[in-house]
Specification:
5-stranded mixed β-sheet; disordered C terminus; alpha+beta; Alkaline Phosphatase, subunit A; disordered N terminus; 8-stranded mixed β-sheet
């Protein structure tokens, strides 16, 4: 029979859909970087919403009958609900340290009731890889995500590893003819295998998925809703491009954003917000105005037809940013306001969840529903603007205010899905823990190179306070769940954290060792291998995790034959594991992993041949990640982004708390998927590599096959 809780959800979904009839403005049909826009008029939106609501009403009785028959003979679920709360980057060493100081009594209580353990992360230990392993129960060679970036073997240029976006002609089919009707962008997720909630849905178990990374574009699945997370682009099609307006003369270009010069005329400033490409291929613009009242220290900010009032160093609410045929949302922040200067920071223009320009949720109206119920919210995958702080266009206060605003939005979304999902699976990933750890880790290390010229006192307890706040958050979660013994709660992270003091440009090291060759007369190369001689180069790196061989038959100008791959990989591994930082005398690499020895899935051949397991304190340098070749191998990391986790995975395990005992001291991220399936009585597919964490432990194969599962101890200072 139909589930009354599901009926209640559908009634509200239908109501929200019908509400759009009176409040929806023209919506954007498609967007792609540089592709321009095709606007779908409000009539299509209204017809679509009516059709959705009418269709749900029509088919619900039929689905209820089908459900009765298809559920016969199914294995009974062992629990009513499973809830997994993801705290990205939550570190077990720091958690234990702060627990000993009495800052985390509620996590201690949860551990005493059930368990606490380190959680083996993925290889490589980077968020898109780890969360993909969480979702699919398989390693990177089976889900095909090894990094944020990979290279296009046909051009050596960087491509996003998670999503492929292509522009194709859009035609109006009249039956007797096809009439060109602009262009549209097609989005394809590159993650392979399948998320376990798809298997739950196929077995009539409801799932509510909030902001799990690598879920864009939102994939369809039965019996569930999904809001996409990490790798959702902004309205310009980038992974987040801020705008900075200043009366001061500063560099016009920033990594992660752009600066514009403004002129203050009396107490008024007028400028334009830069949007996505229009029909002519040029960026569309939107006017905005700031009117200052020096006496009250309040400013009126107008974007389009909307005006809000804020004070200095105070974020506006989300404001609609209208362009022709599409609109986004942004927050505006007055960073500096004095007698002579004004500095205005504008967040990346997010996709408007009430009028989504891209497929950011499943079903498509789900993002609209959440916005109508809870208010507008950040949709950008990397919503906390780390590059704005790196580039010092905002300060630590502005960054923290932004991060906690996003955290509160996410918390409301979690409460909403917990209320709507009394039976089934719920997961929600919070990014605030990761972003704050990246940007404030330098405060844990008084000698960190990034401290030079920056404050080291005001925010020295930010990470400590972060962990204490998560303990308070846990109280709220458990109060929402109540004393339901049929609900399994897990609190997990994808990886831990460590210091990032020194950058290592492995392209420069490869040049010095003769594996990477520059064009004649060149000693360095700018981003994306601009001056690399591919006909003489045997190895190169970009992104944050590994070294590719320039293989014949795979790369466009590959020169390494298949017969040389094993010997060349071993040779590079042997040399690299002896690399020493001349500034400290420290060995740089804990271990270089030969991918073929650990990953044997169908996509292993697309991966880097060598995965770099750095020691704590080291990571690919910023210019190495973008395919540059610098003069020197080593550089101090002076950016606010001072903590990281792109090291040997054994050094940065995640966390695992559960309100039940588990059957192992060494759980891994790959165990969550089979565990959840088993709890709901769903058969575990043979391809999954993890093992259920309850009942008798049955391990056939670890996700990080042949990698020791015993995690290297994390020192309390975690430096």
């Amino acid at each position: 029979m139909a589930d009354p809780y599901r009926d209640r959800f559908l009634r509200r979904l239908i109501a929200g859909s019908l509400m759009l009839v009176t409040c929806t403005s023209p919506a954007l049909a498609y967007i792609g970087p540089g592709a321009g826009f095709a606007a779908a008029g409000s009539l299509l939106v209204l017809l679509g919403t009516f059709a959705l609501a009418f269709g749900i009403i029509l088919i619900w009785p039929i689905k209820a009958v089908v459900k009765v028959f298809t559920l016969r003979g199914k294995t009974k679920a062992k629990v009513k609900r499973v809830v997994v709360v993801g705290l990205d980057g939550f570190d077990p060493g720091l958690a234990e340290q702060f627990a000993e100081e009495g800052l985390m009594p509620n996590f201690k209580k949860l551990a005493d009731q059930g368990c606490f353990s380190r959680l083996a992360t993925a290889m490589p230990s980077i968020s898109p890889v780890a969360w993909s392993t969480y979702a699919t129960g398989v390693d990177a060679s089976r889900h095909n995500i090894y990094d944020f970036l990979t290279r296009d073997p046909c051009s050596y240029m960087p491509v996003l590893s998670s999503t492929d976006t292509r522009t194709v002609p859009r035609n109006l089919n009249l039956g007797f003819a096809k009439v060109p009707f602009g262009q549209r962008a097609i989005y394809k997720i590159l993650q392979k295998s399948q998320p376990f909630w798809k298997l739950l849905g196929a077995n009539h178990i409801w799932s509510s998925i909030i902001r799990v990374p690598i879920t864009f574009p939102a994939q369809k699945f039965k019996n569930g809703t999904l809001l996409s997370g990490m790798c959702v682009p902004d309205l310009q099609g980038t992974q987040g491009s801020f705008s900075f307006y200043s009366t001061k003369e500063r560099s016009g270009e920033h990594i992660g954003g752009q600066q514009f010069r403004i002129t203050r005329r009396g107490n008024t400033v007028e400028s334009k917000l830069k949007g996505p490409p229009g029909k002519d291929g040029h960026p569309m613009k939107c006017d905005f105005k700031v009117e200052l009242d020096n006496e009250s220290r309040r400013a009126k900010i107008t974007v389009g037809e909307e005006t809000v009032e804020v004070g200095p160093q105070e974020y506006t609410p989300w404001m609609e940013v209208p362009f022709e045929g599409v609109k986004g949302i942004a927050r505006i922040y007055l960073q500096t306001w004095d007698d002579t200067d004004l500095e205005i920071y504008v967040t990346p223009i997010n996709i408007d969840p009430e009028d989504p320009a891209m497929p950011i949720s499943h079903p498509l109206v789900y993002s609209i529903y959440l916005a109508k119920m809870l208010g507008k919210y950040a949709t950008l995958g990397l919503a906390e603007d780390t590059w704005a702080l790196n580039e010092r266009v905002i300060d630590e206060k502005a960054f923290l205010d932004q991060a906690w605003l996003i955290f509160e939005e996410r918390k409301k979304q979690l409460w909403e899905v917990l209320d709507k999902t009394p039976k089934g699976f719920v997961t929600c990933v919070f990014d605030t823990t990761d972003r704050i750890s990246h940007m404030f880790y330098r405060y844990l290390d008084p000698t960190h190179p990034a401290n030079k010229g920056k404050d080291t006192e005001t925010y020295k307890n930010v990470i400590r306070d972060l962990y204490a706040k998560m303990d308070e958050f846990l109280v709220e979660v458990r109060e929402k769940l109540g004393d339901d013994e049929d609900t399994v709660l897990m609190v997990i992270s994808d990886h831990g954290f460590c210091n990032f003091r020194r950058g290592v440009n492995l392209n420069t090291w490869l040049r010095d060792e003769g594996y990477l060759v520059l064009k004649e007369g060149e000693t360095t190369s700018p981003d994306w291998f601009a001056k690399v001689d591919w006909e003489k180069t045997r190895a190169f790196t970009l992104g944050l995790t590994g070294i590719f061989l320039n293989r014949q038959g795979r790369e466009r100008d590959g020169i390494v034959p298949a017969s040389d791959v094993e010997a060349l990989s071993a040779e590079i591994k042997g040399k690299l594991e002896k690399l020493v930082d001349p500034a400290s005398g420290d060995v740089v690499v804990n271990e270089v992993f030969l991918t073929k020895n650990h990953h044997d899935g169908p996509y292993a051949d697309l991966a880097p041949e060598l995965l770099i397991g750095y020691k704590r304190g080291f990571r690919h340098s910023w210019d190495c990640a973008t395919g540059a070749v610098s003069e020197e191998i080593f550089t101090d990391n002076t950016k606010s982004w001072s903590g990281d986790h792109c090291v040997d995975p054994r050094l940065v395990p995640g966390v695992f708390w559960c309100n039940r005992k588990i059957n192992t001291d060494e759980p891994s991220l790959g165990d969550i998927a089979p565990t959840t399936l088993e709890l709901f009585g769903v058969d575990i597919p043979g391809y999954m590599q993890g093992a259920p964490l309850f009942g008798e432990r049955k391990v056939t194969r670890k996700v990080t096959d042949k990698l020791p599962t015993k995690q290297v101890d994390t020192p309390k200072e975690n430096v």
